[in-house]
Amino acid sequence: MRQLGNLAEAERQARQIIKLRADSHTRSRAFATLLLVTVLIAQGRPDEACFQAAKHSTSSRD
After folding, report:
1. How confident is the model at residue 10 (pLDDT cuts 50, 70, 90)?
2. N or C terminus: fewer CB in 10 A for the chain?
3. Which among 21, 45, 41, 40 is positioned nearest to 31, based on CA atoms?
4. How far apart are the C-alpha atoms of 38 and 49, rounded to whole Å?
5. For 30, which DSSP code?
6. Which pLDDT belongs to residue 59?
């Protein structure tokens, strides 16, 4: 969706992937987080992108 320019749908799907993946699926969650962050940046929302990156990077270490 991101490559097709449908950023709203790409954001929705990335958030859904993060929500559905168990914490033990670290790699899947990392890729979904990366997708979410790039979509948020493309939407002109860098502050939220930074927040999401920090939120998900620290949650896997707890």
Report:
1. very high
2. C
3. 21
4. 7
5. H
6. 57
